[in-house]
Amino acid sequence: MNYFLVAGEASGDLHASNLMRALKEVDKEADFRYFGGDLMQSVGGTLVKHYRNMAFMGFIPVLMHLRTIFRNMDACKKAIEEYRPDVVILVDYPGFNLKIAKEIGVHGARYKVHANESCTVHRAPKVYYYISPKIWAWKEYRIKDIQKYVDELFSILPFEVEYYQKHQFPVNYVGNPTVDALANREYKNETFEEFTQTNHLDNKPVIALLAGSRKQEIKDNLPTMLEAAAPFDDYQLVIAGAPGIDPAYYEEYTKNHRAHIVFGQTYRLLQQAQAALVTSGTATLETALFRVPQTVCYKVPLKHVSSFIFEKFFSCKYISLVNLIAGKTVVKELFGKYFSTKQIREELDLLLHDETYRKKMDEGYQEVIEKLGQAGASEKAARSIYAKLRKKTN
């Protein structure tokens, strides 16, 4: 089978690479082309465009890069048409991917491929969505596009099954690939001394700073994180450098702080951390699976207005995957009007020094771990995808 995958950010690159690896196990003739990143490229196939040229977030950055975004969409559609895959697998990244689905996924409709002056018509590929869009949080109207343009949806969050059933759209829950990623990680048995020596760190316990994978997230969150953690002199601050971000980009924010940066070692860092300040997203779940006490910090513009909009118009109560999966507050979410140096610092102090507080959070983590289940999501998704494709082609 020929597979075209579209992943537009670091977490998508990780999960797509694991899915590709699993697909190669069940489909020995699997061939891949993709919009993605270094991890997908390490599995094989052809990288058409790197996600570092795609990851724009926030209203103003998106407006400023509209021309680039439209060029990327056109390039993606063209690459799919030229490759003529059996299936297009969209990985999260809904703003981009749902538009691609709309362009190509009309349940077997036909699209045209131009060669010189002739025009050949081919049946469109199947469109599968892996790591479904979080329409249960906001933009619920997107369910109409999913129903119309997506053939199969593979969910990694257990509560999504009931949500999509409500909309009478079948969903395949395959488990969570973050569990797989942790189970298959390297350096599982690395000691604190080995980690610090390798990265030229000192012997103080570690506070991990996970400020996001995009430049805008780093710009918004890292300065306040650093300021909030600065008074904790008995600890060293270690930033998880985002893949695809030039190390020089961090220098503007770290030059006046006693902070270190490690790249490509997020799991190794979390394995050794005493506490973590984390932006929302997959990183909150990864931190929970390592059972590291954390505070979720996320800066948004017009913070009081943003808080009002979230509280009044969003369909969910939480922004972190940890709390969403647990269905209750396990970790403190400091965003909107609650995002400040003072509040982050107070919460970090509790994480580091209040054993009762840490224990209660760890009990919440255990509930999340039990809900997610065992590793094997990538393999289960790959087997299901391949079986469905074979059935449709026979």
Q: How does this model look, in words?
A:
By secondary structure, the chain is an alpha/beta fold. The chain has 18 helices and 15 strands. The protein has helices at 10-26, 38-43, 59-64, 66-83, 94-104, 143-149, 160-166, 177-183, 192-198, 215-229, 247-254, 266-272, 282-289, 303-313, 321-326, 341-353, 355-372, 377-393, and strands spanning 2-7, 31-36, 46-50, 87-91, 110-115, 118-123, 126-130, 152-155, 172-173, 206-210, 236-241, 259-263, 273-278, 294-298, 332-335. The strands form three sheets. It has a seven-stranded parallel β-sheet, with helices on both faces. A six-stranded parallel β-sheet has the order 12-11-10-13-14-15, with helices on both faces. Strands 5-6 form a two-stranded antiparallel sheet. It is globular and about 65 Å long. It starts with a strand and ends with a helix.
Based on secondary structure, the structural category is alpha/beta
Q: Bin the strand percentage.
A: 15-25%
Which residues form runs of ≥5 with pLDDT under 50?
Answer: 107-117
Q: How can the largest sheet be summarized?
A: 7 strands, parallel
Distance between the termini: 13 Å
DSSP, total strands: 15
Q: Helical region count?
A: 18
CATH superfamily of the largest domain, please?
Glycogen Phosphorylase B
**Architecture of the largest domain, according to CATH?**
3-Layer(aba) Sandwich
